[in-house]
Structures are given as structure tokens and as C-alpha cells.
Amino acid sequence: MQLIDGLKVAKEIKSQISREVNDIVISGGKRPHLAAILVGHDGASETYVANKVKACEECGFESTLIRYEENVSQEELLEKIQELNNNCDIDGFIVQLPLPSHITERIVIEAINPNKDVDGFHPVNVGKMALGLPCLISATPNGIVTLLKYYGISTKGKKCVILGRSNIVGKPMALLMLQKSMGDATVTICHSHTSNLKEECRQADIIVSAIGQPHFVTADMVKEDAVVIDVGFTRIPDSTKKCGYHLCGDVDFDNVAPLCSFITPVPGGVGPMTICSLMQNTLQASKINH
Amino acid sequence: MQLIDGLKVAKEIKSQISREVNDIVISGGKRPHLAAILVGHDGASETYVANKVKACEECGFESTLIRYEENVSQEELLEKIQELNNNCDIDGFIVQLPLPSHITERIVIEAINPNKDVDGFHPVNVGKMALGLPCLISATPNGIVTLLKYYGISTKGKKCVILGRSNIVGKPMALLMLQKSMGDATVTICHSHTSNLKEECRQADIIVSAIGQPHFVTADMVKEDAVVIDVGFTRIPDSTKKCGYHLCGDVDFDNVAPLCSFITPVPGGVGPMTICSLMQNTLQASKINH
To answer: Which CATH architecture has domain B139-272?
Structure first.
């Protein structure tokens, strides 16, 4: 069994990006600039945005954090998005989700210029990805494909079972793994209404679990030598930790890992790659926009 | 075994549309208007476009056929698309594919106003469909879902195996069958690189075949009481037919049909429903645009 070290891979890729940015700046080009909009003070969102800002530093990007209180109006948010769309200095930006309930996320996402939508959530980017056209690809699925490639894990013709059909992970992951130029795998998507989920998983060469249920994937669901990618990251209250919680994946790691050829840990597997893909998208957006 | 009669269902839906159009016109509303651009004189394309024009008549739509010779420039085509985008009288339009090799289909499709893209091929519509948002849905997959609903075929939690990963059928079909509000099925997508295709098919409650290989789906691939939807329509030269060919589906119908609970014939199954969905999209576009 080999552990997939997302931290290590993400670090390497961020160094590569940093060197590339250095070359760009030396030859008179523009330093990429990522902006993030954060509404309110949700603990998890604060952490994610702080990590994104830190990753920008590691990559040699400029970053700007724009904060709003919980009660910001949708109009004000949309005005800011318009301003960022028109600001040539900003290459890409994200609006950290979730947003307060009085704001319609869909309207906010669709207001972002698709060429600056480094989260890859805009329908234009989702559609282009589905069609196999160049675009800004949703960060988590892209990070997973990068990990598989890095470890030389063959996916062509393999059976890949994806647990979860979310817009952010499950569906785009399925589309990427299906694409001839990406995964080229046979893809099955399972979800809460799948009747024989264990049997589906037992047939999988590669399992990608993105359902957010701790320890859902148990040893009896995994065949010998399978590759298991765990996208789950549920926060479990834990008084022994300084932050008050520990992260828990979808996979019963201790019992599943011995069966696997490759497996991602939580934390330190997919998580760091998501931010890394966001950095790759920002660099790509910077190249497109200039 | 019950035969799924696409001709009958399409006829019923077109009558419903015709009655609705009548009501709209009587109450002072606008009669929907579909335009079609046809480049060159390909036999199959001529037939499809003629059938679409005929369906418009049956639905009480206005229709306009715009013809270009094979050597039309891409610029001229794009100018016409711009004109149709800006023409308030045109509710929706299609550019019949394939186009001559000197024209880039992707550029042509992306030039169409997504609100008039009644084929549902524009990345915005594909993306919105993937995300489960209201949009103009690609005609063939939508027609298949309509057929399944009409015959009361339950799909929730069922195993649906899709053969083929084309942008026009396989991928959008997978996304629709997966959607909670549509198929809500467990979906597997197989293709040319799938290693154990027969075994995948044998597990399917519903098979949708869209690969264009006559008689590819044989009896040993279909489990008892499966539902088989045949999207194939290969033209086989046939001197006994007036038109010089007969249509052949992907399914070895004679041997597969006895095993099935439901099966679509070719012709007369999915084909009529594709045009019918195009009419539904045109009516929908007309409502959105006015």
C-alpha cells in the first residue's frame, strides 16, 4: 500500500508555479493576482480563505482579501463582482461559499466573468469541461486527476466508482474521469438512492468518495489493490486538539488502507491539492487575460 | 415485452404543443418561430431538416429554412447567426451539423445566443444542465427521459448503463439520468476503452446505447426484464428500399427484444422524440424570449 501524499505533491507544484511566476516577472510580465471575497466569519471559511492567501504567497502571486459582514446585500456583492470583472489587475477571484441565506449563490456565481472564475463553478466553465473544451476546471476534481497522474496510476479503461453527485466534486469528477484526454475510465456515479452501493464499490479499480459521511467506505466495499481517493473532510469536535476538532474522511482508513494499492489520507490527501489547483487556475487565467 | 412507440408519443406531444400554440395565438401572443441553417446538400442532413420543418407545421410554428452552399465562409455564417440572435421574431434556431471541414463547429455553436440555442449544444446550456439549472436541454437525451416517463418506467435507484460518451447523447444522457429531479439513477458510462463492457451491460436495469454500431448490443449482454433504449441509426445500403438504405440501430433487436420489459425500435423509437424535444425547446424559448 502506498500513501498518496497530497501535501508533498502540492508543495512541488506550488514551487514550479513560483519559479514560472518569477520567470514571467523577470521578463516584464504581470504577477498573477487572486482576489477572494469572504462574507461573514464562518470558522471553516476563514480557514480556507487564509490557506488560499498563504498559497498565493508561496506561488509568488499577489492576493487581495475583500471582507463583508454577514448582512451585506446581494446588490453590494454583485457590484463588487462587476468591479473585479472590470479590474485588469485582478486575474481571477473567488467568492467563498457558503453565502448567507438571503443571497442566491447561483446569481453570484453567474455574475463572475468566466475567464476570471478560478473556482470553475460558472456554467460556461462547467459546460466547456463537460464538452472537453479548454476552460477553468473545478479545483478539487482537477487536483485529484493531478494526483493520479503524479503517482503514475493508470486510469484508462479502469472502472472508477464515484460516491456523490455534487456539482462541486461528484459530477465534474465523473466528467473528467470519463474524458478520453483525462481519465478515459469507465465511470459509475453512485448516490443516496443507489440500491446496491456496496456491490458497485467492490467492482471498482478506483473509488472516489465525496459524500461527507465519516467512515462510510468500509473494508468490505473495497477490492484488493483498489485505489481509494477520499474527498471527505467532516469536522469532528475534539477537545484534545487546539482548534477544537479533527478532520475525518469518508473512508474507514485503518481498515481500508491495507487492501489498497494507493490511498489518500485525510488530512493531507486531496485537500492540499484543491488549493493547488486554484493556484494553477489563477496562473492560467493570468495567461489568458494578458 | 412492450414496444416503446416513439412515433405515437411524439405525435401526442406535438398535438399538445399545437393546442398550446393555438391558445397563445388566440390570446394575442406570438406564434413560435424556428429557423434552421443548412449548409450544403448532405442527404441525411436534408432529411433531418425537412423533418424539422414538417414538425414545425404540425406544432403550428412558423419556420424558416436558410440554405448555404458548401463553400460558404465561416464569417458569412457567423454574420447570419448574429442576425438571427438579434431578430426578435426568431425564437430559436439550429445550425444543422455536420458543417464542412473549413468551418469550426465549436465557434459556430458558441456564437448562438444560449436563449435561442434550441439544440442545447451551447456550453452555457450544457453547463446549466450539468448543474441542474433551468436551460434548453439537448434534444435526444430529453426525448429519452420523456419516453421513460410516458411509459411509467421507474428509474430512481435503478442501474442505468450508457454506451457512448458523445457530447450530443452519452454525456448529457448520463447527467440527466443522474439528476435527482430527472432519472435519479445510478449511472455507468461505457465507451470504446471500457474493458468489461458485456459484464457492465448485464448488470443494467436500463441500457441506453448511442455508439452507432449496428447490432452491437447482443442478447448475452442484456439481463431479463431490462429496458433497452436504442439511439443508433446507421444507414445500411439497401437496394430494395426506395431511398436506397434502411436504418439500423445499435441493438440486435430480434434476439434482444424477447428478454426486455421495454425496448425502442429503430426507426420509430428515439428518432421521432429528438425532433419532438426540439419543438418543446422552441416553445420554451419562445416563452422565455417574450
So the answer is: 3-Layer(aba) Sandwich (3.40)
